[in-house]
Design brief:
With 362 residues, the protein is an alpha+beta fold. Helices cover 34% and strands 23% of the residues. The protein binds (3R)-3-hydroxy-3-methyl-5-(phosphonooxy)pentanoic acid (PMV). (3R)-3-hydroxy-3-methyl-5-(phosphonooxy)pentanoic acid is lined by residues 29, 32-34, 46, 124, 168-170, 225, 229, 275, 316-317.
């Protein structure tokens, strides 16, 4: 599919009002996206686990108005929120070509997260995918053609992901589960424009994979991911890094099919450290890990060696640690987290999550 396929050609402008609601999850990348071209086109392919419980719920109520400008109000956890407005304004500007009805309506956007506010967990993936899905449901209500074929279901998901990408790149991987690939590559079915559900074989070792998110630092990031992505322009190691991501995705595809947990750990941890190595070697350089991030990583390595475990870590663009492990190790690993790792979490906070199946219409 191309961008042109996502332009809504005609719609029924007589519909006066309505309301739609979606809940959409966060995701955690195994092969990381870091570096983008114009219009949120990734420099390299990425693959992520969709999460189950870290979600944003968004309800959009739309009311007909005179067509002049964008008009919307945002409520975050019940309170009117001005801080999110510029981001949504930019989002609407980026997607208007594909959704020409946006100026015909006033939108009341009510949103809340299942994870604690200011937990340091990026809510842009779940937040942007939830609003993209709401807008797609509105588009469907306004569209003359209503059909429930597989083709229209795929179009709905692809366009929702396409729109979410224009809000925040990694958000395009939050529409479906359990694994989603984004970025053109030779190993899997893929697109630069939207996330595609990974259709390769997945060994039972990876079913219901666990993700315990250890909240090391709940503060604002010193460097936003927008700035971080830009620093990959002219980065001395960019070319190698982008090509490494292609190789890692190809290897991971084989690992997911074979169930080789030891090989999985190597790729996932190497990807996390490479992401942070890119930050440390950009100009200007920066470090998002905190001392407790390193303490946790070292404890995980000790535990893995001593218990012949398959526990591993990954990191986003921040200090928090995602601890990944197979369901079969759940009881032991949570014991370990409680006894050894909680001490390194801010106020002892961590979130227990696992791989999920994607967004849901409510
Ligand atoms: O979606 P963005 O622009 O916030 O970028 C996030 C990138 C990482 O989370 C660091 C990696 C990834 O692939 O999710």
């Amino acid at each position: 599919m191309t961008e042109q396929d996502f332009i809504l050609k005609s719609y029924n402008s007589n519909i006066e009002n309505g309301s739609v609601k979606w809940s959409s999850p966060s995701n955690i990348a195994l092969v990381k996206y870091w570096g983008k071209k114009e219009h949120q086109i990734p420099e390299n392919p990425s693959i992520s686990f969709t999460l189950s419980d870290c979600k944003t719920t968004t309800e959009v109520t739309y009311t007909k108005k005179e067509n002049k400008d964008f008009s919307f109000d945002i409520y975050f956890e019940g309170e009117q929120n001005e801080a999110f407005k510029p981001k949504i304004q930019t989002f609407f500007e980026r997607i208007e070509t594909y959704m020409p009805f946006l100026k015909d309506y006033h939108f009341k956007i009510e949103t809340s997260n299942t994870f604690p506010h200011s937990s340091g967990i990026a809510s842009s993936a779940s937040g942007m995918s939830a609003i993209a899905l709401c807008l797609m449901s509105i588009e469907k209500e306004l569209s003359a053609i209503q059909n429930e074929s597989e083709e229209s279901h795929n179009y709905f998901n692809n366009k929702a992901s396409f729109l979410a990408r224009l809000g925040s790149g990694s958000a395009c991987r939050s529409i479906e589960g359990e694994l989603v690939v984004w970025g053109k590559n030779e190993s899997t079915e893929s697109s630069d424009l939207y996330g595609v559900k990974f259709e390769g074989d997945v060994h039972p070792n990876f079913h219901e994979y666990q993700d315990a998110i250890l909240l090391v630092d709940k503060g604002e990031k010193q460097v936003s991911s927008t700035v971080g992505h830009k620093l990959m322009f002219g980065h001395p190691f960019a070319k190698e890094r982008f090509s490494q991501a292609h190789h890692n995705l190809a290897k991971l595809k084989v690992i997911l099919a074979s169930g080789d947990l030891k090989a999985f750990v190597k790729i996932v941890e190497s990807e996390a450290l490479t992401l942070h190595a890119m930050m440390m070697t950009s100009m200007p350089y920066f470090i998002l890990m905190k001392p407790n991030t390193l303490e946790i990583i070292n404890k995980i390595w000790e535990y893995r060696a001593e218990n012949d475990s398959n526990i591993c870590f990954t990191l986003d663009a921040g200090a928090n640690v995602h601890v990944l492990f197979p369901k079969a190790e759940k009881d032991q690993v949570y014991e370990f987290i409680k006894s050894e790792l909680v001490a390194y979490c801010q106020n002892g906070h961590y979130i227990c999550d696992s791989v999920g199946k994607g967004a849901k219409r409510l």
